[in-house]
Amino acid sequence: MLISYNWLRELTGTILSPLELRERLTMVGLAIDAVEEKESDAVLDVEIPSNRPDCLSHVGIAREVAVVVSGKLRPPSGKPARSEGRSTDLTSVEIRDPDLCPRYAARLVRGVRISPSPAWLAKRLEEIGQRPINNVADITNYVLHELGQPLHAFDLAKLGGQRIVVRRATAGEKLKTLDGVERTLGANMLVIADAERPVALAGIMGGEDSEISIQTTEVLIESAYFNPDSVRQTARKLGMDTEASRRFERGADCENVLRAQNRCVELICEIAGGVATEDAIDVYPSPLPARSISFRPCRVDSLTSLRVAETEMKRILTGLGIAHTEESSAVWKCVPPSWRIDIEREEDLVEEIARHFGYDKIGSELPPSNQSGEHQPKELKIRKLRRTLQALGLDEAINFSFIELAPDNQLELIPEFHAQDPEHAFVTLKNPIIEHQGRMRPTLIPGLLNSLRHNLNHGIRSVRLFETGRIFAESDSGELPKEREALALIATGGALEANRAQAPRETDFYDLKGSLEAAVAAMNRASLRFTKAHVKHLREGQSARILLADGTPLGSLGTLGERISDAYKLRQLVYVAELDLSRLLDVEELPVQYKPLPRYPSVVRDLTILVDRQITLGELLHTIEGRQVDDCRGAQLVGTYEGANIPEDRRAITLRIEYRSDERTLLNEEIEDRHRGLIDSLLRQYSAQLH
Predict the structure, then answer these.
(1) Does 377-586 carry CATH code 3.30.930.10?
(2) 304, HSE (Cβ side, Cα atoms, 13 Å)
(3) Tell me, what DSSP letter sits at residue 247?
(4) Strand, helix or coil at 335?
(5) For the segment 352-403, what is each residue's pLDDT rounded down to a tens digit?
(6) Cα–Cα dist 638/642, whole Å
(7) pLDDT of residue 444
């Protein structure tokens, strides 16, 4: 928001320079992005926090300046307006939807002369980026920037029945706004109407049919309070962003309605002539109750470590308009002003005192404790997992918990979420913080795909990433969403090695599988199992289901499918894996056992068999382990062969089997007998042939 330095000086009498104000206001939470010098003024570009609508005006900023310099605010004042007659004799106001418009005030000024604004008014508006229009319209804009209350002036003669009706629009109703655009309204949009048709979008923009013109002599000044949610939703649906909507969306001051209207009427009578009605029609069926907060001064020290004298606390609270009385020596009763909608509890009062006393005076120290801290067991396991993956060359990614809606139905979720009804598996946000990202992520894969695309767009072809984080699904009970910790990995490009500028080969499925197995081993969990599977977002024949040792499904691993690759514009093979980390962490940790080095030699036998192409190495190794052959210490893959002299539906797999006894050296006859028995069982079970 643009603030005039001269205007602030009129309201506060400050002697601080614009640059000094920039530093002081920034230190109390009102960051000033820039100071632009004008001919005889300076304009401060103030960044207003979203919870401080009271600062969207010169008076609001001046109030902060007055507290900063230990001065007093000089409220704006003008000449009393000439008045005659009562507003109710000339017009009427009806609020049909008080839930969207709790308060509406109307007051008339008759006999006005529409003309260009005086030079001082036009210059002041131009300095803060407002284009002068005419004296009446400029006065409403001036008061908006002065007091923060949006106002609107109607030509009374153009209002059907010379009355105001505040109501919801009917579906399909049309209104041509002041910007010349005809807009189609929805049923939940609030409009200001006359006896016949809508004449303004409530809290956003007036209508063209009732605007002030050179022929206008009778003006109806509107000042109201509109529901912030209603204004925000209407403005977004219609793609509108105005000075008025910005203030109503954040929450205007309901008690400022008449004060701003009186100021506007005084200026109109002074500048444009005319006679005002003696009173305003103020429809306010349910006045907002006053708020009261119990405040303990000792809480300032306990929460912030700041030692603030009670006299200084009172000065700060009084300067900010917060009334206070001492109920006892230890408790004050504080009443926040109507314009401070952000003050709701004791901690908010502590914050007000702390920011004006000085955030820079808050010391840094650890909270006192009579116990030593410790890591939770799962935290240590996740740390081992992360360190292992980093040592294997994967970079850790951290993404937002919000994603776009599009990828949801294209990705298969972890088993814990995949079993749910697809219609109720996702958590959709009613009011997303980031536009177009309206869903809590049910999977980590979209975030990693975005990170991968970002790297590829910057010319980085070889990328290996992993992420641990929470994923979300709708709860079966309809309460808070379900949450699970998940682990996801993604890799593409070359398989880079240490101290080598060029990758000797391309990354493949087994690189990702090996990284995952190494991470699980570092957590001291039993080895994972992998089986063939059809996974929605992975290529057919290049995907696997990840299982725990007991066969419980954990996640998936494989080559990213072409449909999703095309959607993200990925032109090279991408390998992805995701598993349920919460379930993995719940698995019992393996006991750490130490064994002496073997005293007797081991003997290895290589075995090559022809098996169906659908048989996986994991199945063979699992079968060999399950046979529990005496003195068999395990099996490893030597290699596979497919091609000449091998049927198309088969492949040759060579395994190396190790035999060793802990009691003596095995005889060759014993080894051959056991090895032969193992071979026969494999040949029978898989209809295989020796090769």
Answers:
(1) yes
(2) 23
(3) H
(4) strand
(5) 999 999 998 988 877 666 666 666 778 888 999 999 999 999 999 999 888 8
(6) 14
(7) 93
Q: Rounded to whole angstroms, how far apart are CA atoms 144 and 151?
A: 7
The CATH topology of domain 87-283 is Phenylalanyl-tRNA Synthetase; Chain B, domain 3 (3.50.40)
Whole-number mean pLDDT of the chain? 91
Contact of 81 with 112, CB cutoff 8 Å: no
What's the CA dihedral at 584, 586, 588, 590 to 10 degrees?
40
What is the spatial distance between Cα 312 and Cα 474, in angstroms, rounded to a whole number? Answer: 50
Q: Is the predicted pLDDT of residue 499 greater than 80, yes or no?
A: no
| Under 8 Å between Cβ of 8 and 46 | no
> ∠ CA 446-583-477 to the nearest 5 degrees?
80
Rounded CA separation 382/522 (Å): 10
Which residue in the block uniquely carries the two structure tokens 């925000």?
232
3-state secondary structure of 232: helix
What span, in angstroms and rounded, lies between the C-alpha atoms of 357 and 412?
Answer: 54
- Tell me which DSSP letter residue 339 carries: T
Closest CA to 581 of 472, 470, 475: 470
User: Is the CB of residue 609 less than 8 Å from the CB of residue 623?
Assistant: no
CATH architecture of the domain with range 603-690:
2-Layer Sandwich (3.30)
Cα distance between residue 91 and residue 85, in whole Å: 12
Lookup: tokens for 167: 């109501």
Tokens 């070889």 belong to residue: 462
474 falls in which pLDDT band (50, 70, 90)?
A: confident
Spatial distance between the Cα atoms of 501 and 456, rounded to a whole number of angstroms: 18
pLDDT tens, position by position, 55-86: 999 999 999 999 999 999 998 988 888 899 99
Alpha-carbon dihedral angle through residues 6, 11, 14, 15, given to the nearest 10 degrees: 40
> Token pair of 238, please?
């219609």
Please report which residue ranges of 375-444 form alpha helices under DSSP H: 377-391, 415-418
> Cα separation of 214 and 492, whole Å?
69
The rounded distance, in Å, linking the Cα atoms of 521 and 130 is: 66
CA angle 405, 408, 410 (to 5 degrees): 130
User: Cβ distance 34 to 21 under 8 Å?
Assistant: no
Give the residue carrying structure tokens 């300067």. Answer: 319
Query: Where exactly does CATH 3.30.930.10 map onto the chain?
Result: 377-586
**Is CATH 3.10.50.40 the right assignment for the domain spanning 2-68?**
no
Look up tokens 């990705």; give the residue: 411
Rounded Cα gap, residues 668 and 644, in angstroms? 34
Q: pLDDT (tens digit, 9 = 90+) per residue, 241-270? A: 999 999 999 999 999 999 999 999 999 999
Q: Tell me the CATH architecture of domain 293-359.
A: 2-Layer Sandwich (3.30)
Encoded tokens for 36: 């632009």
C-alpha to C-alpha distance for 104 and 150, rounded to whole angstroms = 12
547/513 Cα distance (integer angstroms) = 13
Complete edge-to-edge strand list for the sheet that includes strand 2-4: 2-4, 42-46, 32-37
CA-CA distance, 675 to 607, in Å (whole number)?
9
**Mean pLDDT confidence for 313-318:** 95
Q: Residue 568: CA atoms inside 13 Å, Cβ hemisphere, count?
A: 27
First to last CA, the chain: 81
The continuous run of DSSP H or E covering 555 comes out as strand 553-560
Nearest C-alpha neighbor of 252 from the set 281, 293, 223: 223
Q: Delimit the CATH 3.30.56.10 region(s) of the chain.
A: 2-68, 293-359
Q: Residue 424: is its pLDDT beyond 80?
A: no
- How many whole angstroms separate alpha carbon 45 and alpha carbon 65? 15
- Distance separating alpha carbons of residues 80 and 29, to the nearest angstrom: 37
Q: Which amino acid is at 571?
A: R
* HEC letters along 468-513: EEEEEECCCCCCCCEEEEEEEEEEECECCCCCCCCCCCECCHHHHH
